[in-house]
Design goal:
Rossmann fold, DNA polymerase, domain 1, 2 domains, globular
């Protein structure tokens, strides 16, 4: 890691985590929920196509409907998907990524605030954290989608979290796993780290970021500073 990148990370006053596929290992459950929703109309979605379209770029439902000429409304899919996902995260198993808790504790030990800022609802986030056994006392704030906030790639969710935490964008770091999340971070004028996982392996992004690391790489880096 370059000295400049090192300084940015270790002088951050706040870390904003995306949730699904970044903080929590929930992308498979989202796929299963979407698959169930589309199957109600006799359509099967591909898992290999799901991650680039639904997760990385966003707006996957519209893309799927248009690509296959489906006579389905986005609202119908959203309703069925919501119900399926709510059931899946309560049934389990669901987990945060193995390094997440240690990363959060290291960030807080260094005096930074740590928050989740996600397109998912706060209710879904708290349900996942509860099922996964993650201690929410380690988090300063959870911000999910709200009626008055535009979803990513708009910057609203990040900016709202920063306002609540009284932190400056330029001194805060966003951790994201998707292109739309990196785009939102750039719009909020926050430095961003692209968290690399098995879900976004091989995907590309032209959005600005200060680095690309797996959870394990980032944890090793932060531990190396003692």
């Amino acid at each position: 890691m370059s000295p400049a990148l090192n300084d940015i990370i270790f002088s951050a006053e706040c870390f904003l985590w995306d949730f699904d596929g970044c903080f929590a290992d929930t992308e498979k459950l989202h796929f299963l929920a979407y698959r169930e929703a589309f199957s109600a109309f006799g359509h099967s979605i591909s898992e290999t196509a799901y991650y680039p379209s639904f997760t990385h770029l966003g707006d996957g439902t519209r893309r799927e409907i248009e690509a296959h000429g489906l006579q389905i409304s986005e609202d119908e899919i959203a309703r069925l998907k919501f119900d399926a996902y709510a059931r899946l995260i309560r049934q389990g198993p669901v987990a945060c990524f193995p390094e997440t808790l240690d990363l959060v504790r290291l960030m807080r030990t260094r005096g930074a605030k740590v928050a989740i800022a996600s397109n998912s609802s706060e209710e879904e986030i708290r349900t996942v954290l509860g099922t996964a056994g993650f201690p929410t006392t380690e988090l300063d704030l959870i911000v999910g989608k709200q009626n008055n906030l535009r979803k990513k790639p708009a910057p609203d969710i990040f900016l709202h979290a920063l306002q609540m935490l009284h932190c400056q964008p330029g001194r805060s770091i966003v951790l994201e796993d998707s292109n739309r999340g990196l785009e939102a971070a750039a719009a909020a004028e926050c430095p961003a780290i692209w968290i690399k996982t098995r879900y976004n392996e091989g995907l590309v992004s032209r959005e600005k970021r200060i680095g690309e690391f797996s959870h394990a790489q980032l944890l090793e880096m932060m531990r190396s500073r003692g």
